[in-house]
Known about the structure:
The protein is α+β, with helices and mostly antiparallel strands. It has five helices and 17 strands.
Amino acid sequence: MKKKISALTAVSFAAALALSACGGGGGGNGGNSSAAASTPASAPSPTTGNLTSPQYAATSAQAAVFNTLNQQRQQCGLPAFTENTILDQAGQAHADYQAQNGGLITDTEDSSKPGFTGATYTDRAVHFGFPGSQTTYSGGASAGYYTNATLSETQYGQQIAYEWLSGVYHIAIGAWPVTEIGIGWHELTFNGFPQILSSVTVANLQTLSGNLPLTFPCQGTTGVPYTGGGETPTPPNTSGNFGQPVAIVGNSTDTIVLTSGTMTDTHGTVINLQLLDSANDPNKLLPKFEAVAYPSGPLTANTTYAVSVSGTINGTAFSRNFTFTTGNLVG
């Protein structure tokens, strides 16, 4: 049986002129739409390090992270990630840095500590040779996980991916239209079982076309966690544990404001959702083109929920109505 000792995650996306949004994290035990499908309006610009097909070993945790994120993203009309070997180096360096410094889950690095390669996700990407011109919207996320059961590397990778997808702030890894990713992975041992430290670096925001905004989850999404927790900073109006969020995203020039949101289960129980956008986010982490609606408490495992969210995109009203189904995962 899985037991999550700590899963504190952190996300940071650097915007133009070095403006950034950054959440921090620390761990115990040494760490821890119905919208029409859209595609990028233009193909991603060629970037050194992009691979035509992923080269992560088939049974590796990195492959599981990559495949889980892509499967969930693509069914919602969001572009697939391409593996970038430069971002792989940046992600791996940060995972190693966390391991070398007590397993503390963190966005940033301290130049006085071992393993330092750059203060921010963007700094580390540039350090390893990623083009600075493509870091306008770049960033990443870090996570830690421990269980006293023996899992496969694939199961560990899936768990880490779903931790990000179930976070109010970290759902950006699943919802933003970035197209390049690098995955870092480091395993320590705690009480005789693996303790996971992972970090992803993402970049190259692309323009979406079609029926915007998009949502994640979207119509037909299945298997997402019924509850998440341990997120830093703690999402507003929660006790630290909350249900699967819904991210609503447009293009980088768009402004999304939410006005209402509910989830209704198969018994007809209506949950009024917390509405978070750039205008009311007390942590100032959400960009204008992303909003999040989320239950303030856990949902029920293996249950279908009907979602209804409304708001405006650049002042024009929109609504999205769809169903998704939780699994029995804890994010």
